Amino acid sequence: MFSDFKRVHRRRFLQVSGAAACGLVKVTSASAAEINPLIDTHVYLGDWPNRRLGATAPAALVALLRQAKVNQAWVGSFDALFHKDIHSANLRLVKGCRDIGEGMLIPVGAINPTLPDWEEDVRRCHQTFKMPGIRLHPTYHGYSLDDSRFARLLQLTVGRNLFVQMVVQMIDERRRLLTPRGPQLDLAPLTRITKSIRGLRVLIANGVEAFEDVVNSGLAKAPGVYFDFSCVADGNDLRKLVRFVSADRVVQGSAAPLFDADTSSTMLEQANLTTNHVNLIRYKNARRLLSMTEQQPG
Fold it and tell me: Is the backbone of residue 117 left (phi > 0), alpha (psi -120 to 50) or beta?
């Protein structure tokens, strides 16, 4: 599926580039922004409890993302947060992404290491569904990061060359009304684990709020750890994050459709970063994560 997206995107890029070379397209700064890809690394399909969302079906989600100028989205399943049949949730996710958007939706399967046979779910994500990574929700699935099963899970992802997207929270304190609440996640064990597992690639989603926090300071220096900025307050905080962890380890992630898909782009504009830093965050860092994830034979 990811290879299909690359073919589609390359074909579109060559069409636009060729037209520009022939003088058929005037590449202004505005049109250049449209040509540059935008990868949203944190998107969902499905329904959210206690709140009606406008883009729960794949076609509606694609329309929402295209309106926000997103070229590719890494998609998980809301069902996987609340249902115990993780395999069925991942299967529905794959089917929902497969035929919509010409490879725009990249499924990222959920794993719950507290359930029986979770190792088999990891194998299916890798071998059966050909996913580039997995998405974890520890606060909803009820385990801490010092759980031995979590360390085992990370070891398995390295062996299968999968990235790990770890969702620290689904919503911040400012938006708690009528939202299923999970306990606060302690990231300290992850700081220790990243030092012991070579080749680990972890994307921290919805987890950046206190930049001077000792735990995040440790993660900022850990190799292979990336961050989205969906929980920062404004453009000033985004600039602080870039200074704190470096621009080459920050990606965009909106948590759409739970949040507005274009909020992260607006915040990126407000941050007044260099063009190079903007492009790293918009798509280059996420693309690098995917390029390091090539499916190995089963």
Answer: left
Provide the whole-model pTM.
0.82
Find tokens 């996913």 and name the residue.
Answer: 131
Domain layout of the chain by residue ranges: 1-35, 37-291
Spell out the CATH class of 37-291: alpha beta
List, for residues 16-63, the tens digit of each pLDDT value: 333 333 333 333 333 344 457 999 999 999 877 766 666 667 888 999
pLDDT at 7: 45
